[in-house]
Design a protein that fits this description.
Length: about 150
Amino acid sequence: MNPRGLRPAFLIVAICLLPACSSTNAPGSAVTLLVTNATCTTEECTPLKIHGFVPKFAVPGQPKWGFLDVGAANSALTCLTLPHSDTLTLTGPDDYITWTVVDPIILTAVDLDYTLRGRTTEFVPADAPGWAVSFGGPSPAQPLALLNACMP
């Protein structure tokens, strides 16, 4: 059989599979979060702790703000990097659930007293290199996909 005869068939298969494998964000790339702290006035900001509520971790005892610690937003604009993965151990070393950036998440913001200051809708972080969200204002926090990641 002529190896040249295989090339067109291989190319057609490869081209057909490409869209199924493509992703907005390269595997292993850091996903960033540009947080607007809408509690800020000209004089001060209410410090916010940003957490992730992972639907995959739907177990009794998960607080309404979630188990995943993302970072703090102590100024008007903060760039955070989402962890690439997190593991929840349930009862022992072999009983665990792992979340990665290809899984859905809901971001939450709490103040120092753990009063909920905002919650996003569910989204998949790996769908974009960066996201923007505003917490602490009158509007619900909706994640907005960014073409470029912010610089932490």
